[in-house]
Amino acid sequence: MVRTTGRHDAPTDGCAAGRRRRVLAVVTVGLLAGVGAAGTAVAAPDTVDGTPCAVGTRACVDLENDRAWLIRHGEIEYGPVTISHGGQGRETPTGAFSVQRKDAHHRSKEFDDAPMPWAVFFAPGGIAFHEGNPETPSAGCVRMPGDDARTFYEGLEPYDRVEVH
Questions:
Q1: Which one of the listed residues 53, 60, 85, 141 is annotated catalytic?
Q2: Which domains does the chain have, with CATH numbers?
């Protein structure tokens, strides 16, 4: 007896359909286990020891632990420093970004000309590293004490990679 699959009337027997299911199951398990199609291991990018950030990152932010670092050549160059970040409804965006611009004497147009010394802008919406009180939530920026903000300002350049986790 020959059965058809209903697709292009290709003949099939029960064994072929069973083999396809087994192959699909093996491929699915392999991918879930982190094995690529060629049988090679699929690895996450290397992270810098002590941080959640990839080796190629220049500035790293850990929102959960209120810390930030400068990284050079896969090694911590400065930090961790204590930070504050956006509060409820004004969360600091997470992801990978790049430094857009710097302004040592920036004043906020959004918040009544409030000073934002040592501002390093890296995310849409005016999100920046800058000097500020690390004890209270910000409106989305990453704030840190003055000496740390100045070090970040001096250490970062446009197009440097910033990761926020």
A1: 141
A2: 1-43 (no CATH), 59-164 (2.40.440.10)
73 flagged as catalytic: no
Burial of 79 from C-beta contacts in 10 A (0-12 / 13-18 / 19+) = buried
pLDDT given at position 27: 37
Q: What is the DSSP string of 69-83?
A: EEEETTEEEEEEEE-
Instruction: Note the pLDDT tens digit of each residue in 117-145.
Output: 999 999 999 999 999 999 999 999 999 99
Name the CA radius of gyration of the chain, rounded.
Answer: 25
- The catalytically annotated residue of 60, 85, 106, 130 is 130
85 as an active site residue: the answer is no
Q: Are the C-beta atoms of residues 116 and 131 closer than 8 Å to each other?
A: yes
